[in-house]
Amino acid sequence: MLSQHEFQSRESVTVWEGAMSQGDTEVLAPTSMRFSGQFAECMEMYAPAPIVAEYLNTHQEWFCRCAQPMKVESLSVNGYALAIGRFGAFGYDVEPKIGLELLPPDNGVYRIKTIAIPSYVAPGYDVDFKAVMELVEIPADSQGKLVTKVEWTLDLNVDVQFPKFIYRLPKSVIKNTGDRLLDQIVRQVSRRLTAKVQADFYKSLGLPLPPKSKCH
Predict the structure, then answer these.
(1) Nearest to 165 by CA among 33, 27, 6
(2) Percent of residues, the chain, with pLDDT higher than 90
(3) Is pTM, for the whole model, over 0.70?
(4) What architecture is domain 28-204?
């Protein structure tokens, strides 16, 4: 679902070149900086809500496959460890790995939350991932097509311990760059996962993939 990617704006490179000194590139600062984002999107499925729900409820059968090229490891019936890819700015890269639990639906509401990965300590970062999904069935159109929208929201917070040299930059520059990078990662992952899940869903029903559409 995600190829390796490095984010560096021209302004970031220029500022960073004067900030780093030899010998302090590997020393992490004792405090972290938080990057946050709130996201909302939807995925359309041309099927009744109960059929879409049945598919989502059997994520064990498709999640690992649809998440590729991310590396995914099953932790439990509902838990997964995901290696997102390689990202960075200001000459500092991280390869985030997070644990997620896809909770069973509660009154039609699906939730995804962060869980610990056994025997793994994140090197200099911490992720708090809280997502909510709901199914909204739209009445059939003039062609008799019934659409179910999978509407989701995500509240994401990431705390990062940077090497000390990074903090020679203005905090506003670090914060704005990190928030933009976080937004870019989420949108890239979302686009790829949505496309793969939709294709897998229709394949599981023996149906052709319909033309691309955008939720409104």
Answers:
(1) 27
(2) 62
(3) yes
(4) 2-Layer Sandwich (3.30)
